Structure formats: structure tokens, C-alpha cells
Amino acid sequence: MSKPISQLLNDSSIGKKGLVFNEPLLFEMGSPGREAYSLPKCDVPEVELEAILPIAEIRDPIENFPELTELDVVRHFTRLSQWNFSIDTNFYPLGSCTMKYNPKVNNETASLPGFAQHHPYTPESLSQGSIQLMFELQEYLKEISGMEHVSLQPAAGAQGELAGMLMIHAYHAAQGRQRKKVILPDSAHGTNPATANLCGYSVIQIQSDERGLIDPKKLESIMDEETAAVMLTNPNTLGMFETDILKVTEIVHKKGGLVYCDGANLNAVMGKTKIRAMGIDVLHFNLHKTFSTPHGGGGPGAGPVGVVSELEPFLPKPTIEHRDGKYILNHNRPNSIGKMKAFYGNFGILVRAYTYIRSLGPEGVKKASEMAVLNSNYIKTSLREHYHLPYDGPSLHECVFNDKYQLANKVSTMDIAKMLIDYGFHPPTVYFPLIVKGALMIEPTETESKETLDEFIKAMKKIAELAEKTPEVFHDSPQIPVVSRPDEITAARNPKLRWKPISSAST
């Protein structure tokens, strides 16, 4: 029997442990006859569902449906909201995700009536301010990246990636080239091969060298006239700058291919170098990462895409242009890959990114990337004696450890991540990139203070110590949160989609 977690987490100076209420499910609350609302008398004749719907489409009554007052419901969900782990309350060291703080001024600007109440069908003549904002945001992104043209239309990073690869496909088709494959490093983001396949390409993987970087010689040996593009990330997914990037892009261009860059890690180099100067032909931006807009849960996002002049005819339509003193949406784009989204992107997110860039200014943008790199290296230096570094080269905005030292005591990356929850920290990205077995990928961003980083480092060191002295406690973590350690494999294979009381759950 392992020691109670309270005996092990006895240092109140490590982490943050908030209130944990013993909150029942709604199905476990209430009493027959309670109501949260009242409806007026129905003003149309009542009809039995069976008379208008097929029996197969009518759901069975929900067993033990809770009957609650409005106060019951409000208090329940208010208490649950106090458990939320959010960027406003806690530190997210998620590598590759760039979970930075979203300044409230961004929301204030997006909430201005002229923006918030602007209907997408409003004529251009009455939308000049909004279109001007989008035009200027394009110009800022062009300046930061060095790309010659930018479209704000894609609704997410992955969609920006898709737009970029569709343009590459359209470019080769216009040249009369039948290119069949795309080359990816083995450290590539998971969406890269999916996007390449979606565009009709087969994927060729190139193994990273001992530094964790692209090997130009290996690339040259497989690059040919059938290759449409190389998809890469710089800095790469290990948080390391591709030092041979100019050689890489030269090899690709000599064979008539193009180079796509995933903008996931732009936060490390913005203001310091321009992606276009590396020989990149297509770049997508992650506004939710680099430019501090909400991540949005896959919904209200934005993933602008930048291209070189040769690819400009293929940009999504409409493009935003400034002609004769007016800002317009140009739909007359015969070679365009088409629309990526209804209307024009996600305007509220674009306003937030615009505000962030204007708030920082040129020097602030540069300072943000410098601080992101400094914070990452502070963590890396502080933890390198306690966790294994599979690639010990220079790091930029993130660093990747693994569980090699802890595995000697049968403590895995998953165990470390779960124990971090007991200390009040969101775990880092785990088991990614795939080229690092048992990866712990940490990215602090520029917005975290030294005090917060020190708390995180202290917790990580304590976990390393526990892995040596009392490894048995890890397999029950987390123990402090309401939801402890689920059986994720069983949950995925045999999901329970409807709650049942314990008395009837076995029947």
C-alpha cells in the first residue's frame, strides 16, 4: 500500500492546490417536482411524437432525469467552473502549443461595437475600417515573416497548412508538372503527413541526424523531380534551429520543388529573423500560438498563410487589397484555390492578433521571442541533471526531455505527467515528438515569470526525487483532483456514454 499522497506532497511551497469541492453529478441531485423554469401555456395543439416521427428516431426516456431548481443548476456549474484549469489561472508548459497569456486588451478591442456588431454581409463601402484592419494585419505578418503575400482566410493552423499545400499543388499543375510525393522529417507535426495525403501526395520520411536536425546529404539522396515539396518546421519540433536550412532549401529548389514551413514555432524567432530569408516558399501562421489569441478548442481560430510571389495567383479568394484609397475584397481570382471559409476568416480573432502586434510594436515582438528562448533555456539548464536530454544541442523556445533516468525505477513519462497534476501543474506535452521515446516537451513561453518557472522546476525536481525513493506512489497519481487516473484504454474501447446509478449500472 502506497503512502497517502498528502504525506509526499508536504511542501506547501511547491505548486498551487486550489479548492476541491465534493460536487455530485446533476443526476445525483434534486428532488421530484422541482423546476428551474416555467413555460407559458402551449398556443398550438399538442401532438404525440409518434404521430410525426418514426419510432426509430424517438429516444427512450432518460432514466432518473434530475429535477432541479434554477439555483441548484447555477450553483452546480459555478462550482465546476472554479475547478477549471485555464491560462488565466495556471501555467501551461505544453510544448509546441505555445499556451501564452492572452492580454485582456485584445478582448477589449474585439468587443468594440464597430467590430463586434459588424455583420459579414455589410457592404464594403460600410466596412472600410474592418477591411483596413485586416489589410494592416496582413502587412504586419508580411513584415514579421518576410513573405511577399498573405491571406488571412484559413480558419485554423491545420487549414492554413492545407491552403499552403493546395497552392503548391496548383502551382505545379499550372507548370504542367505531375509531382507525386512530399518529403517530411521524422520529427514533423502530425498534421503534415495528413495534409500531404489529403492533397494527393505520398509521403516520404527522412530520418533526422544525431543532432535531431535534417541531414542535407540524406535529403539530397532522395530529392528528385517527382517531389512537390518538403514540409518542415523551423525551429523544429525539438525546439532546435535547423542550422542547415539554406542548404536544405537550395537542394529542394534545384529539383524544382517548393519548401513549406509549419509556423507552429514562429514564437521563437519573430523579430529576430525572417522565414522567407531561409528560402521558404509557403508559411502558415498560428495566431492562437504566436500572436496570443484564444486557442478556441478547434473552433474560433485563424491560420493565415504567407507565400512567395510565384504562388500569389493561387491564394484563397477573396484577397484583401488597397486600391485608389479604398480597401476591397477581390473575388476576381481565376487561378485561386477557392474559399477556405465562409465570409473572410474569423474576424474576432484577427482583431485580437492585430491588437497584440500593435501593443508590442517592433521591439516588443523581438523581446517576446527573446524572453521565450530565455525561459526555455532556464528550465532546460535547471532540469538537465534530473531528466535525460536525448538531443543536447542548442534549444530555442522549448526543450525536450524524456523518462530514461526514471524508467530505471519503472516510472514512466505518463507517471511523471500525472504526478505533476498533484502538484498543481498542467503536464507538458508527452510522447511527442515521436522520435524521442518517452518525450517530455516543455515550452514556458515569454509570459511566465521567473517565480512561476521556479515553482515548476521545484516540482519537477521533487518528482525526480520521488521516482528514486518511492516510485510505487506514481501509479496512483493524480490523487488530489476529483478525477483521478482513468483507464484510458478501456474507456476508449468500451465507452460509457450514459450515466446510470450504481444500483443499475451492473444490470
State the gist of this model:
The protein is an alpha/beta fold. It has 16 helices and twelve strands. The strands form three sheets. It has a seven-stranded mixed sheet, sandwiched between helices.
Explain how this protein is built.
- The chain has 507 residues and is α/β, with parallel strands linked by helices.
- Among the domains are: 24-82, no CATH class; 123-359, Type I PLP-dependent aspartate aminotransferase-like (Major domain) (Aspartate Aminotransferase, domain 2, 3-Layer(aba) Sandwich), CATH 3.40.640.10.
- The protein contains 16 helices and twelve strands.
- The protein has helices spanning 5-8, 49-52, 70-81, 104-110, 113-116, 128-145, 157-174, 191-198, 216-222, 245-254, 347-383, 404-407, 413-422, 450-469, 488-493, 502-505, and strands spanning 149-151, 181-185, 202-206, 227-233, 258-263, 282-285, 305-307, 319-323, 326-330, 399-402, 429-430, 439-442.
- The strands form three sheets. Strands 1-7-6-5-4-2-3 form a seven-stranded mixed sheet, sandwiched between helices. It has a three-stranded antiparallel sheet with strand order 10-12-11, covered by helices on one side. A two-stranded antiparallel sheet has the order 8-9.
- Helix 10 links the parallel strand 4 (227-233) and strand 5 (258-263).
- Helix 11 (347-383) crosses helix 14.
- The mean pLDDT is 92.
Question: Secondary-structure blueprint of this entry?
Answer:
Layout: H1 5-8, H2 49-52, H3 70-81, H4 104-110, H5 113-116, H6 128-145, E1 149-151, H7 157-174, E2 181-185, H8 191-198, E3 202-206, H9 216-222, E4 227-233, H10 245-254, E5 258-263, E6 282-285, E7 305-307, E8 319-323, E9 326-330, H11 347-383, E10 399-402, H12 404-407, H13 413-422, E11 429-430, E12 439-442, H14 450-469, H15 488-493, H16 502-505
Parallel strand pairs: 2-3, 2-4, 4-5, 5-6
Antiparallel strand pairs: 1-7, 6-7, 8-9, 10-12, 11-12
